[in-house]
Every structure is written in C-alpha cells, then in structure tokens.
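Dear colleague,

Following up on yesterday's call, I've attached the two folding results inline so they're easy to grep. Please treat them as preliminary; we haven't cross-checked anything against experimental data yet. The first protein's sequence and structure tokens come first.
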Amino acid sequence: MKTIFLCLVLFSTHMLLGQQELSTTTNINVDITALDLASAKGALKTFIAENNAEIKTQNETKNSINLTLELNDNQYQALRKALPNWGYISSDIINTIDHQEELEEVALEIDFLKKKKANYEEVMSQHEMKSAQFEALWREKQNVEDRIFNLEKRKSALQFNQLPYTVDITIEEEMTMPENSRVTFVNMPGVEYSYLKIENPVDTITPSAYQGYFIKYLFTRGKSYAGVGAYKAIDKSPGDSTFFSELFVMNFGQDFYSRHLGRGENKFGNLYSGYTVGYMAASNEVKKEDIFYLSPSIGIELFKNKYFLWDTKVNYFIPFSYNRNMRGIGFNTSINFVF
C-alpha cells in the first residue's frame, strides 16, 4: 500500500507541475466587537454553511464566540468581504509563513533516504534471503521506506495545501453600559483657548463675546478631563461696569469617540462628541453671580500620539441662570502632553 501511495503522490505531483505551488500558509487573528451579538453569530454561521468552511475549533459563551477556520483562497476572499458587516474590526493580525526552506530540507532528506535504501538493496542482494543478515537489512530498509513515506506526505501537504488560510475569529458583544470596565488613567496636563460668542447679548448682563484661557487636565484615555480658567469680555469700554466682564470657570468634561470612525485610534482626524458641566463665578466691578452650566460639544482631534494631543471643538454654552442672555456658541482649541 505504501508503494501504491508513493506512486500516486509522484503521479499527482507530475500532473500538477503546471499549477502554482502553494508553499506558504497564512495565519490570521481577527477580533470583532458587535452591538448585536446574536445577529453577528448568525451571519458567521451562515457564512460557514454557505461556503462549506471547515471548523477546526469552536468556543461559544454568552457574550462571545470564537472559531478557528481552515479556508481555501476563494473562501478566504469571501470572508474578507463579509467581516466588516459583522461588527467593528478592533484587531486584524496576519502572519504568513513561507515553507520553501522546509521544502528544500524535506527534499534533501528524501534524496538521502532513497540513496540509503538503494545501498541496503545492493547489500541485501549479496546475502541469502533466509539469512539473519538479510532479515536485519530488510528491517532497516522498511524503516527507511516508512520515513520516506511520511516525508513524501509532508512534502505534498506543503506544496499543494488546499486550505492555506487558518483564521481565528473572535466576536465579542459591545457593552454600551459599563460592565467590569477598566479605566485607563493618563497624566496629560495642557492649556486651552476658548472664544465664546453670546447669542443674545444685553448691555446690562453680557458683552457680545468673551475669550478665555484655561488649564485643562486630561486624566483618562477615554477621555475625561477637568479645567480651570477665566473668560474676559472683548472690547470692554473703560468704566463700563454694567455687564459681567469676567467669568471664572471650573469644569469637568468627557468626550466619546464614534464606533464607526475608528474609536479614537487614528493619529489624525478622530471625530468625537462630548459634554462639559461646570461652575462659573460671573462678576464685574459692582456685582457677582454664581452660575452653573452645561455645554454639549462636537470636536475633532487634529493630531494625537502617545505623548501629545491637539484637538479643537465647537460647543453650545447653556447657563442655568441668565439663560436667555448668556447662552452662546464656543470655539475651543487645546493642547495636552504627557508629563
């Protein structure tokens, strides 16, 4: 049977000489987060059934599913098209292994063993078939043939691998509410400039615009921050004491990245939305008011790396007192750096 198998392998190799040899295998690890895990699971299983994909391992829990698939080229290309529809691809690692060197080593060993087998046959021909020397040489020759058989199988598998892609897919449910959340703290102080345009200014309450400077302290990667600073009225007339000319501000804010636009992982152009809540001491030369406010915002990170962040945003300033005559649109830009 071994001899027949070897003949078939050699014949198949000869017939496939005109085809491209696949001496590489590719291992892919893909991690996906999905808002609708049940739908993503269903889509994955439908893909497996429609493409007759081979499952190597499978592990399914309440909040995730992990599968290892072995795929041919057509199946892999179909998978690549389907992956973005199942959720957000948070990790996609591809590792290609070239087996050319291993093929050369296997071929050399096969050649060596065939010569060794020929030597055994030549020596065996010099002994009687029933002699002890002949039987010992025959056993050694059988061991060599077994090794050749296994090496030929390995060589054939490396040269003409029908399933060259091994894909490990993990789909996890995306948590929209905190659940065993881990907060990553950072230490990034910085400065912020703000221009506040008042929507309905009144001479006795507000000027048409303020500008201010703030210390902005970013303390989570999420990102959460605290700030302190002051606004001053623009184009204030000497002796004008009727409106609030200075606004001393303390605030806290959070920004959130879009799950559809990179989740803040890009170096340039991360879009985000957020809010700021705070306390404001509004004053002039004759009076002072304590005012709390809320300020929803939308912004874009112009540049970000592990050590530096430059972003800008537009916010709508909503005070809880003097709401009609103090609300307005703010334009902010800030720079933070690792300290």
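Below is the second protein, in the same order (sequence, then structure):
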Amino acid sequence: MAQQFNPQNIKKKTSVLVFLKGATAPIVLYVENPQELYTELTQLMKSTSNVLVEKETQGPIKKVCFMANQVAAIAMQEEQYM
C-alpha cells in the first residue's frame, strides 16, 4: 500500500551556502544555528583582514576551512524533508 501524503510529517532544515571565488558549486553547511553562522560569515566578508575560517558541521561535511577573502557570497537555504 502506498504511503499517503501527510503535511504534518514534513520537517524543515536550514543550511548555509558558502560560495567561494572560482568554485563551481557552493559549500553546503548544516549547523545547529544557521543564522548565527550566516551573520558571522557576513561580518568576516566586511572585514579587511584575511582570516582562516574553520568550522565543524553536522551534515555530510564534518569539518571545513577556507579563507574569508575567498568568499564571494553567502546564502541561507531552507529544505523540506520527511
């Protein structure tokens, strides 16, 4: 028997996408507090100093590091899953 669609089973998770200069695809980061990470990274982009960013995450990427001056853009993405 096919499983019936139940909108109450749909959950949402938010990820932070980091677009690096010269990269073809963004790095997708799943963290406990995506808004906090988004704010932190946007502040680093405004800074004139070059900083190494190193983060531990909860998704398929467990640990990542990149130079703050290599970030071209940052986005937050909401995904639905069951």
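For the second protein, one point worth flagging: The chain is about 15% helix and 40% strand.

Best wishes,
A.L.
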